[in-house]
């Protein structure tokens, strides 16, 4: 029952790990034993291996179509569809010089349904807004926009926005969208210096955020980051964040904590799309207590049911604690506790750290898939060993699944594991290699994968699946004998566990056949499908393959038999773990007793040294008191003399200042009698009178001009009336004469016609009469025309004369007006100058008198203070001379203290030797206790082996087990716990 309770507690604890970091001690290099729970001890005698090199001979083809990218979310994020036939490149820059676009949302999403009117207006406003836009309104700063209340606000940012402090926000759901203005992407520049803060700080306990089409960068020499949630490397906190990044570029930043790009204490969901870029992010610190890397992305806690998907480009990122812990884990990505689903399917290139050049994962309790391209990443040895050129997964926990399914090309470890390094594989953990591995190299062992541990035994299931490709990988430490993998270790920290037997595998041994690497407490077993000769091996081989999605048929009998072996092994492991815990307690108890004994010895030594120091201090204090008394008397005399000198100086200074104040007050009072306000009022009144006189003169001149103009117009009108009347009279007279002559011609014609008609032949006479009539009428008409023309000419001449006379009169009027206006202006200007001169004259006289009085008072004050200061300095100099003379007469006490000092050193030497002798006795007693505990533990280990063998043989599990000894051991254990 006790064993079962321990197992239940262990399983529950493993599933309930939440906000607390699960990071374990970094596995020690065999040449560098650990002396700290989280770091490897520095071995100053250890030689750092040279950085190996590699040559990439070939790259896979990444040319594809948008339709092949099943993960694209065009409809979800962009209300668009996928252009399935469009040709694109899976990873940026990996399709030669073709200029082929990357297969991301920006390239593959087409037939966009368009923005609403409100969104379009907000985007247009963004390009001219100094801050950011929310709901069609421009706010002065991005912080003000982020502070706007709203359940699902969208904050639009355009242009380059420089922020001088982090932007904190508490919106439950928020979208931050960059808007391209004049062809330029939106950019946030973090121009502040903070060890822990980022440009965007999400501070609500539960937040959902979307960032899109935005650049985030920093300022050279200043520590900052991109987007942070709450928590830190040691404590995830209670916040859970849902964060999506679409086409976000975070680059050129330096930070001192994990996550220069993104940091989340707790992740509900994290998604970065193919268009995201994390470039040139540097995590650098000299902190001795930290080792979490992840310059691009850092996440502490991913609980079961939650997920992380990282796509995009992660390039030229690095993590370093040089000068500090020197253990940097994950150049680009750092994940701590992973119980959910993780997919890393981006391009990781030229990233570097001490452990995991690109990615580091502390504990996998869930499912992790490494897909994508991992190229030219480096694990650098800074003196503590290096491992995992590309990916490090420290602990693969029971029932976890880790799949290596990407392209791993040209990665380098200056230590172990050119691609992958692991430190703990619990039973039923699954690791499968199903990718492309080319030109990876380890300076020591494990060209592709290395397992090494100083505290655990390899117990997991690892499968090299038949579709995996291994070419040109190298392990320089054993002449490529482990160019694919190396499994070894020495868990000396836990004596109950056996040493890991070495197991290695080279490319020359790989023939494309599915191969399993199965670990248990007694060894590492390697077998392939052709090697299987019993149901148990077949079950173990197919178990990992099932996890990878390959499902060969399996019979019920095979399943039952496999489970039986699994239960037997698990019972054995559980028993060993319980014994290990129980005897670890006994070891701790022995060490505790040794610590108590050692503490007593040290306390006695401390007490002795205290007494010795007290004796010496008392002798020293007696002499110090005498010296201090004499010194105090001398200083008192000096202080008294100095006080008197200062008092005299202060009295003289006060008198000088009083005289200055009195004279200054008198000068100001005299100047105050001059009233600037009254003078300015007089000046204003004079100006007003001058302006009024000028207006009056101008008014009279304008009145005269108007009257003269009216008179000239009246005379002109009278002349024109007279001229027109004369012309009308003459015209009437001409017309009258014309009518009379016409009538006379007509009358004569009628008389001659009558005479002609009386003749026998009247034709000639009638013709002659008519001709005469026409001549007479024409003569009258010509005369009329001549007269009218003559009279009209006369009228025209008279009219022009009248017009000229009027113009002359008006010109004379205008001339008189201009002369009057000019005279008024001249008079006004002369009067204004006279008033201004008069005002300035009175003001200048008053100011001159005041300034002269102030100068005189200031000079007198300066002279008086200088004289007082001179007298004080003379007095102080005399007092200091007297004090120095007195000090020279004091006797020193160095010779008197020599004997006391020698006695002090002799006593300390005796106490030190006594401490050394007592500690030797304590060490002997402690070794005796440890030997006794070890003997009991060895016996119980043998009993555990017997229980396992009984189960495997089908016997009762406790048959032959010494129950009396077990019972006695449990009683002894209880006594130890009570004593502790």
Automatic annotation (TrEMBL):
What name does UniProt use for this protein?
Right handed beta helix domain-containing protein
Q: Which residue stretches, if any, does this entry annotate as coiled coil?
A: 788-830
Question: Which positions make up the signal peptide?
Answer: 1-19
Record's InterPro entries?
Answer: Pectin_lyase_fold/virulence
Question: What's the domain of life for this entry?
Answer: Eukaryota
Q: Could you tell me which residues belong to the region Disordered?
A: 26-45, 858-881
Q: Which UniProt keywords apply?
A: Coiled coil, Signal
Enumerate the SUPFAM superfamilies for this protein: Pectin lyase-like (SSF51126)
